[in-house]
Design goal:
CATH superfamily of the largest domain: Medium-chain alcohol dehydrogenases, catalytic domain
Largest sheet: 7 strands, mixed
Number of strands: 15
CATH class of the largest domain: Alpha Beta
CATH topology of the largest domain: Quinone Oxidoreductase, Chain A, domain 1
Radius of gyration: 20 Å
Strand content: 25-35%
Bound molecules: NADP nicotinamide-adenine-dinucleotide phosphate
Order of helices and strands: EEEHHEEEEHHEHEHEEHEHEHEHE
CATH architecture of the largest domain: Alpha-Beta Complex
Distance between the termini: 14 Å
Oligomer: single chain
Length: 324
């Protein structure tokens, strides 16, 4: 099968389309014929191995010190079940599915365990849209529900509201009953409003830390906010939650956790929960949330897709089409 290989860390040009062996599903695995996949900010980081910051060592141990351990790129996919292992009970050949598996998805076929993050694709969702859903939606759900512990009636500010995590965070926070303020560039204000944000702040003209508004939660999905500056707009027991974190945020998180009052919280999302992906599929089915597709590239243009993702300017997700 054709797949995107990354044999060494480096710029987008290290990516090559290669013919590799098609995976054979084990007894508990499903083989998916991929229709669409994606390039996420995480894929670009894993390819370049830059920007890992404080997580350099754990990432190196997990993903390979000298060269990538997973030499096929990509994590999100959508497509149809092509084969099932003998123990698979909940999927049938031909089922439309979408899911997430790190280091394998930019390929014509993906083998994934039945118990991993794979779900039936909602009918209302095109294959292309389904391929930019799991990374952002699973991260947003975990950060809001488990890390920020957002409650109905709270006021949340989402910084980076137009990115892959941000577009889902806005919609899921609204669904959880919060009052949502999104922060993005002027060009993305209408998009973020259309996702249900109650207010949108254009960070190129307005500094949210200098307004009179107060938030129970500040969720920074892209970096750039600081606890020292945002303290004055955080409520008494407010939480400043960092999706992207380094030493300053981790030290602040430790320090603020041992005393009452405003807190910094850092966290990691696993992005591998089957039940969470089923919940996301349900919310899409009910019309509560939807993915945002920015651009679509053919598999052969994977390096261009990485170059675009690295600009840090994408809106929602970048699709890579695999099936003709
Ligand atoms: N800790 C975890 O477990 C975890 C999980 C998922 C993701 N992440 C990380 O979270 C980060 C965000 O991921 P993502 O995929 O959502 O990123 P992304 O899609 O690449 O984010 C792009 C968006 O960021 C916005 N942006 C850039 N600079 C900004 C600024 N100064 N202020 C406000 N918005 C800004 C851009 O909007 P404008 O053009 O409007 O500025 C753009 O729409 C990545 O670093 C990713 O690796 C971490």
């Amino acid at each position: 099968m054709r797949a995107v290989a990354c044999r060494r860390y480096g710029p987008p040009k290290v990516l090559q389309i290669e013919d590799v062996e098609r995976p054979v599903p084990k007894a508990d695995e499903i083989l998916v014929a991929v229709h669409s996949t994606s390039v996420t900010s995480g894929d670009a980081r894993m390819r370049s191995f830059k920007g890992a910051g404080i997580y350099w060592l754990p990432m190196a141990l997990m993903f390979g010190v000298l060269r990538p351990r997973n030499q096929i790129t990509g994590m999100e996919f959508s497509g149809r079940v092509a084969e099932i292992g003998k123990d698979v009970a909940t999927f049938r050949v031909g089922d439309p599915v979408f899911g997430m598996k790190i280091g394998s998805a930019n390929a014509e076929y993906v083998a994934i365990r039945e118990t991993a993050a794979i779900a039936i694709k909602p009918d209302s969702l095109a294959f292309s849209d389904a391929a930019v859903t799991p990374f952002g939606a699973l991260s947003a759900l975990e950060f809001l529900r488990d890390i920020a512990k957002l409650k109905a009636g709270e006021r949340i500010l989402i910084h980076g509201a137009s990115g892959a995590v941000g577009v889902f965070a806005v919609q899921i926070a609204k669904h959880m009953g919060a009052t949502v303020t999104g922060v993005c560039r002027g060009a993305n204000v209408e998009l973020v409003k259309s996702l249900g944000a109650d207010e949108v702040v254009d960070y190129t003209t307005t500094d949210f830390t200098k307004t009179q508004d107060v938030y129970d939660v500040i969720l920074d999905t892209v970096g750039g906010t600081s606890f020292s500056r945002s303290k004055r707009v955080l409520a008494v027991n407010g939480r400043h939650v960092f999706v992207v974190q380094d030493w300053p945020q981790l030290l602040q998180a430790m320090w603020t956790s041992i005393r009452p009052g405003k807190r910094v919280i850092c966290g990691m999302s696993g992005g591998d929960s089957k039940s969470d992906l089923a919940e996301i599929a349900g919310l899409i089915d009910q019309g509560v949330i939807k993915p945002v597709v920015d651009r679509t590239y053919p598999l052969d243009a994977i390096a261009d897709a990485h170059r675009y993702v690295e600009t840090g300017r994408k809106r929602g997700g970048v699709v890579v089409s695999v099936a003709a």
